Structure formats: C-alpha cells, structure tokens
Amino acid sequence: MRGGPEVGNLTYLTKKFDLKKDIQFNTRIQSTRFQEDSKSWLLYDSTGGTYTCRYFFTAMGILNEPTLPNIPGVHDYKGEAWHTARWPDEGANLDGKRVAIIGTGATAIQIIQEIARRPEEMQDIRERYPEIFRQCLDSYSCFVHVSDIRRVFDMEEADLLKHWEALYALPGFANVLGVSGDIYTNREANKLYSNFHFNKIRQRVNDPNIAEKLIPKNHGFGTCRVALENGYYKVLNQQNVHLVDLTENPIERITNKGIKTLEKAFEFDVIIYATGFDAVTGSFRAVDFQGIGGA
C-alpha cells in the first residue's frame, strides 16, 4: 500500500509546470542567519550545506512535525512502525499482517477504511469532475454544497428527515455544509441533528457495544472537527478488525512484540501511529531562526 492519491496529484503538477528543476529534495534546513551586511539570508542544512537568498519564505505548514504518543516503550518495538505522516516511500505491504493503528482522528479513520478494503476511485466520479468544479465555482464558499436557509424547527419532521437522509447519502461535506445554519447556533437543533447521526452509527455498526463506544458523549455534531468517512463504520463489522477503547482499557506500554494494555497483551507485525502533530509551532521550533541582531 503506497501513499494516497495526493502524492500522484503533486507529481502530476510538478511535471505539468516543470517545477522539479527548481526544487531540491531530501534536504532539511536546520538553521538560518540573517546577514545584515549583505541584507541576505544564510541557510544551513543537516549535512552542512549552505545556501544564500535575498528573500526567505517559511512555507512549512502548521502540520509538519509528527508526534508520537507519550507511552513507555515506544522505541522498544522490534517490528515495523511509522507515523502516518512518515509513510514508507516504497509503500507498505500489509497483506496478512497483524496491524495496530493508534488514534481515532481524521487520519486514522481514512487509513483504517483504506487498509481494510483498498478501493479504487470510481470511474463515474472522474467523469463528473467538470460538473463538480462548476458547482464549486457557483457556490459562495467554493464547496459543492450550499447550506439550507430554512431553520430546523420551521420544517415538518418528515421533510426534515428526508432532507437529512439525502445529505447523508451524498459524499464530501454534504452533511456538514448542506444543513440549516441554526444547527450550529441552536442547542436543541444541534441535539436533534446529533441524534440523527448517532442513530446512523447504531444502524451501521452491528455490535451495539461497539456502536456506543463510537458515539461521542461530550460534544454535539460540528462542535469538534467532523471526520469524513465512506466505509469506516462498515469496516468495524469485519471479523479481522477489533476496536480497543483506550478510555476503558488504556495502553500501559509498547513492548518489543506489540502493545500491552491494562487488560491484555497484543502482538502485532506493524504499528501505525495516527497520533497527530506538534501543530502550528512545531515546524518553527525544528529550525533555529536568527534574524536581525540574532533575534
């Protein structure tokens, strides 16, 4: 399993616009110094190489430095292990292997459903690209979906549920952006829409106990980041997929063979960390910046 389609998109763009000649790959800048006499920047990379430039743009992004969980034994594990942001360049063969994924955020949800089924992009979606792009350009937010101007409690219950069912069946941000705006401002409207989604989880997950573990108890729909999925809940019905609720059975440590929780020791061939990033400031702390006067 190689990286997602985003890698292919970037490769296509670099070829189309002949960008490779202006890019230096596999180079990590460790420190920068502003030279006041020449009004230029001096950059040092991790191999001792130096570069000078007049203009220096730090387009490093805010999700650039991955973080591993603060769990004892992270570096003791002897099998294959990596963070999702450091996926092996050569790809990863996970067929027939026991794989642990630590994390339940947006990245974990995407990876879990891809590892379990590995679908190819549907041809009819590719053929609809021009139509999709036109819809985006026609909307005020450049998304395909436009919010409903009606208020939740001004609608008949049957019409409301029919509308929500239609949105739920659509891809992308439909069930986030296509709903009435007061779902995000009216507590009772949000509760009603949250329960609609909670019931969807109960319908799609066969085991009632697992379904309840997947339903958030401390926030309503949209008050935390909504993780998009198109097969995550279905995957959890498979016999080879097991959910471990770390709020009930926390990890004690990583062993050389796998993961030891409070209740059980699990052996794995691969551990994948979907544990997020040192967001916003992590990218900048990784480089020693010194500007005018060494500041």
Automatic annotation (TrEMBL):
Residue ranges of the TM segments: none
Residues in coiled coil: none
GO molecular function annotations of the record: flavin adenine dinucleotide binding; N,N-dimethylaniline monooxygenase activity; NADP binding
Keyword Aminoacyl-tRNA synthetase attached: no
Keywords: FAD, Flavoprotein, Monooxygenase, NADP, Oxidoreductase
A Pfam family that the UniProt record links to this protein: FMO-like
Descriptive protein name: Phenylacetone monooxygenase
Species this chain originates from: Colletotrichum incanum
Taxonomy of the source species: Eukaryota, Fungi, Dikarya, Ascomycota, Pezizomycotina
